[in-house]
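Tokens in:
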């Protein structure tokens, strides 16, 4: 978006789980924030990072506790079928 000219429309792009199309309608000079102004943004970023770490650890713990067995050969065959037939494997 930084190099997109004024009034230009970007091609679709994915961010997170969503697709976006952006139009640049105005440009303003960047501003340097004081620490007090930046604190809420920093807190949000740190909270999100902590949340992601906790969710990842919880997922790993649950996966280990569930005694999950992965049959890689079966998974590989399944995904190979997806590559051959874009609609997926037939039942």
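Residues out:
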């Amino acid at each position: 978006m930084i190099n997109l000219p004024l009034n230009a429309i970007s091609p679709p792009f994915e961010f997170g789980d969503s697709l976006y199309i952006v139009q640049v309608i105005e440009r303003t000079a960047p501003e340097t924030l004081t620490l007090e102004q930046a604190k809420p943004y920093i807190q949000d970023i740190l909270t999100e990072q902590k949340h992601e770490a906790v969710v990842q650890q919880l997922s790993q713990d649950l996966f280990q506790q569930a005694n999950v067995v992965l049959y890689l050969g079966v998974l590989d065959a399944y995904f190979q079928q997806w590559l051959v037939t874009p609609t997926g494997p037939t039942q």
